[in-house]
Design a protein that fits this description.
The structure holds two protein chains of two kinds.
Chain A (H helix, E strand, L loop, with lengths): L7 E5 L3 E8 L2 E4 L9 E2 L2 E3 L5 E3 L3 H7 L4 E2 L13 H9 L3 E4 L5 E5 L2 E4 H20 L5 E6 L5 H13 L3 E7 H10 L6 E8 L4 E8 L3 E10 L4 H20 L7 H20 L2 E11 L5 E9 H26 L8 E5 L6 H11 L12 H14 L17 E3 L6 E4 L5 E5 L7 E8 L8 E7 L9 E8 L11 E8 L5 E7 L5 E5 L8 H11 L1
Helix pairs in contact in A: 3-4, 5-10, 6-7, 6-8, 8-9
Chain B lengths: L13 H10 L11 E6 L3 H10 L5 E6 L2 H10 L4 E5 L7 H10 L7 E6 L7 H9 L3 E4 L4 H15 L2 H4 L4 H12 L6 H5 L7 H15 L7 H4 L1 H21 L2 H14 L6 H12 L5 H15 L3 H14 L4 H22 L1
Parallel strand pairs in B: 1-2, 1-3, 3-4, 4-5
Helix pairs in contact in B: 3-4, 10-12, 15-16, 16-17
The chains are: A alpha+beta, B alpha/beta.
Chain lengths: 530, 343
Amino acid sequence: MVEHDPVIGIDLGTTNSCVSVVLDGEVHVIPDESGARVQASLVSFLSDGSVIVGNECRHEQVVDPVNTIASAKRLIGRSYVSKEVKAALQAAPYKVVKGKGNVPLIEARGHRYGLPEVSGMVLRRMKDLAERYLGRPVTRAVITVPASFNDTQRQMTKLAGQLAGLDVLRIINEPTAAALAYGYGRGIKARLAIYDFGGGTFDLTILELRDTVFEVVSTAGDTFLGGDDFDNRLMRYMLAAFKQQHGVGLEGETLAVNRLKHVAEKVKCELSTKERAIVNVTELALDANGAPLDLRFHLDRAGFNERCQDLVQRTFLVCDEALRIAGLKASDVHGVVLVGGTTRMPLVREMVAGYFGRAPLVDLNPDEVVSIGAALQGASLDSDHFSAPTSGAAPHRAPLLLDVTPMALGVQTVSGYYDVVIERNASIPCEHTRTFTTSMDDQTSVRLQIFQGDSRIAAENIKLGEIELYGLPPAPRGQVEIQVTFEIDTDGIVVVTARDRATGIEQATRIEVSAGYAPDEVAQMFERGA
Amino acid sequence: METRAPTRTQPALGRLALKRVVVAAPSPPPAVSVRRALVVEGDRAVRDAICATLPRERFEVHAFADGDAAYEHGMLHGVDVAIIGKALPGIPGTVLCAMLRKSKAGAALSLVLTSPHYTHAGAGAGDCAAFGADQFIALPATPDALLERVDFALAQREPLERLKVLPSDLARLVDALFERLDASTYYQLLDVPFEAERAAIQQAFHQRSLALHPDRHARLRAVAPHAFEKINSVYKRISEAYKVLSNVSQRHEYNLGLRRNGTLRYDTEARRRREEKNMEIAVTNEGRGRVLKAFECRTYGDLDGAQQWLRQALTLEPQNTRIADQIDAIGKLLSIVQQANAS
C-alpha cells in the first residue's frame, strides 16, 4: 500500500484553534514550540509588514488591536449587511469594510483581506505546527465547523483551507467530531447530547452511538451566543465600576476598553477555579490634571453567576428545540458531553446538570476534543474499508458518522414565501427533485432564489444564491416545467441543478453564493498567499 | 449487414439477463474481448467517419441509417454501446435512445447521443438525463474526443462487479440496487419487511450505511469515479428511504400512496400543498398560527405536540369541525404508534 502523509484534524475555533493527528491508531494533540496545545485564532499585521499568527498575537491584541484580527469566524461566509456582522462590528476593534457584493473585508495597514484569507493564515499556522511535529509535509486535513454553519460559511471555510495549502477532505460538524472523540474505541451504545458552548457559538446535537455507527439524530444552534458574550458583559460592568470610582467614562478610549476586555476574560477564567477575583488595572486613563486613574475591581462567583445566568438560560431554548425535533425528553439522554471553553464555567456545569438531571461527562479536555474527533474522521476517510479486507490491522477503526443538515433548504415562491425542498435534520448526503413552472406567458427565463433557514418568509432566511435558467421555449404560463435537483453532499455543501423538462436544457451550477467572492478575487487571494 | 455470433455472454445483470445466460450455453470469454457498437446516424459522411474510428479501439461496428431498423437490431443482438444521432429519419434519435434504455437489456447498455447542431451550451447534458443517454457529443468532433465519450459511457454502465474495485458480494449488491433504483419501494431499498419497527429500520439503515456510505469508499473517488458516483446515488436514495420510514407520519402517508397508487417515492411537494391547504382550516389568524405549529410538529413526528397545538386552536374556534377532524386523524396515527410500541 502506498504510504500517504497523515490527515490532520483542525478545530478552527472562534477564539482558539487546535490540531491533532492519528498515528498508528493513537491520537496526538500537536503542541507548538513552547508546548501549548491550543493556539489563539488571532492574526496580527505588524508595522514591518510581517504577519504573526496564534498565541504570539495575544500581546499585539492588547497593544495594537486595530491590526490584530480576532474572531474572524464570526464574519466568515456572512454578508456585510447581515445583523450578525453588524453586531460583530460593534465589538471588533479592527476595521471591516464592505467589498464587492456585500462581502466583508478586513482592512489592516492599508491592505484588504478576505475572511477566508485571515482564517487561512490560522490554518496555515496549524499546518506548520503539524509539519514540524511530524517532520514531513502535510497536505490533507479535516476541518470542523459549528453544526449551525450554512452552505456559504462551509464553502468559505473550505476555501480558507485551500488557501492554506490544504486539501480539505471533509468539513465536519464540531459536536459530531466531539462525539467521535468521546465514543472512539469505547464500544458504547448510548444516546448522547453534545453541549457545545464555544467562544462565539452554541450548538446542541443529539447522537445515537452504536459500536460501528454514530448517527446524528438532531441538531440545533444559536450562532450568536458564546463565551465572548460573557466577557463583554463583564467588561461593561467594569466600565460602569470605573465611572463610579472616578466620575469619568472610558467611552472611545479604544486601548483602555481593550485592556479591560482582556482583563474581563481573565476574571471570567479565574472565577472558574476561585470563589473570588480581585483585579487592579493601572493607568487606564488620565484625569484632568494628568494623574493616572486605576480601576480596583473585585467580584465573587455568585455575583458573576447572577449577572450571566440568562446567557446560559438561552442555551436551554436551543436544547428544547433539539429534543423536540428528536421527539425526546431531557431524561431520555444517557449522557451529556461538554465541548468548548465556555463549559469550563462552574455556572454552566451546574445549570446543564440541572437541565438534563445528570452530571455532565467531563473526562475529555473540551479544548481538544473537537480536533481529536476531526483527526479520527481524517484517519477513517484515509483508510481503505473494503479493498484490503480484515488483514488484522487497525483494530480501533473510527466508526462511521451519519450526519444531518442543520437547516432546511428551499426556494422563494412567487409570493415571497419559502418553499422547503429538503427539511432540516435530513441525513446527508441527500437529494431531492422538485418541478417548477413559469408564472407568465412566453416567459423565456426562470430565476430561482435559493435559501437556507426555517422561516416561512423567504427573506427571513439566509440567501445562498440564485440560478437562472434561460432559453425556455415560449409557451403559455404553467406549460413549461423545470425540474430542479437539490443535493447536499457529505460536507453539508449544496449543489443545485435545474433542467427544462421538455428541451432537456440543463443549468448546473455550484450555487453562486451571495456572500461569496468573484473568481478573480479568489485568484488574488491565492496569489497573495503564495 | 454482417453480424457475428456473440463473442461472450451478456453481463449477468438482473433476472432477465440471468435467464438468458441459462438458455444460451455460456461460451468461454475470448482472450481479447471485442465489444459491439451500434451506430445510428442519418448523415452518411458522419456515419462513415464514426464507423472508421471505432475499430481503432477493437469495436465490432453495426451501422444503421434509420432508427427503426436499428432498434430491431439493438433488441435482437446484444450490443455494449450505441452511438445515436439526434436527427434521424423515422424514429427521432432521442426517442430511440429512450426506447433502448427501457428495453430488456437496456440497463446494461451504454448510450451516447450525438448532435450536429450545437445550439445551447448546456443542451447535451440535459438530453442525456432526459432520454436516458450516458454521454453527449456535438459533431463534428475529433476521433479521440468521440472515443473518450464512448469510453466514459461504457464505464458508466460497467457493472461494479467487473471493475474489481470492491469485494464481489458488495459490488453485486450495488449493481442490483442501482439497476432497480427507480423500481424499488423504500422497504426494498432498506431490505426490511413492510411491518418492520422503527428499531429494525434503523438497524437496516446502519447496515446499508456501513456498506454503502460514500465515506466508506472515499478512496474510490479518485481511483474509480464512476463507481463512486454509482454508490453515492444508491446511498442518497437509501438515506431518503430511511428519512421517510423513520418518521411516523411520513411513513404513514408513504404507505397510503404506495397501496393506493403504487407511488414508490414520498412526495414532499404534495405534502406541502396539502399542509398549506390544511392551514386554511382555521379561520382566525391565531388559529392558523397554531394549526401551522401543529403541522410543523407532525412533520418532525412529534404527534403529541401536534395534538396539543390543534387542541389550542380548537379552544379558539370551538365550532370549527375541520380542526376537530384533524385532531381525530392525528389521534388515529397516535394509536397506530402506541400499538406498534406495545407489540
